[in-house]
């Protein structure tokens, strides 16, 4: 293999400097502080020089967002690596790990999970949720859910209990879910991923994400002196609804 040229090594190092500086601004001052001008000022270069590496601020923010998502996934993967090969145990450990990460990385959480399109980044990918199932966080979450669905007999609502207005969207989402599960090596029977199962997965994520978002931004309806107990109760409710134990 040819050795990288001196110019290539400098370019890679500069790109790392840019993203490291962007992450520093994000953590210290929030998503709004991540601008090409601010990064250039921190690095002692001109803002136009950054366009050699990123076509726009949105381009840079998207790379930063992907870095944060990858770090979150790596942290959660390490966290569950020592747990039993049990989909339920791993899924609820991921839920708790996601909340803990969000509460200790509020600026990164804001960029990745709570930035309205058009503010922090106007690109369509400004917000990472499970609509990006093939990204690292979506993949680890859905892989654990796939193990759970493949190995447990869950209490899933019948298709007729799912609002008919949602059928088309849920059916389209099933293809993405099956692709992620196949790529992750989960031996998942496709027939198990029906409308009821997909609906439960979306509802599960929506309630988890909604709770964490309210907690991160201090918008829970009433003051909570024991927030851990409130979150554990949410997980217990979610588990009970599908016939599991979240403990």
TrEMBL record:
Q: Which PROSITE patterns match?
A: HTH_TETR_2 (PS50977)
Pfam families, sorted:
TetR_C_33, TetR_N
Which residue intervals are the DNA-binding region? Answer: 35-54
Q: Which residues form the signal peptide?
A: none
Note the InterPro entries from the entry.
Answer: Homeodomain-like_sf, HTH-type_TetR-like_transc_reg, HTH_TetR, MT1864/Rv1816-like_C, Tet_transcr_reg_TetR-rel_C_sf
Output the superkingdom of the source species: Bacteria
Residue span(s) of domain HTH tetR-type: 12-72
Gene3D superfamilies, alphabetically? Tetracycline Repressor, domain 2
UniProt keyword terms in alphabetical order = DNA-binding, Transcription, Transcription regulation
**Know the name of this protein?**
TetR family transcriptional regulator
What organism is listed for this UniProt entry?
Answer: Amycolatopsis deserti
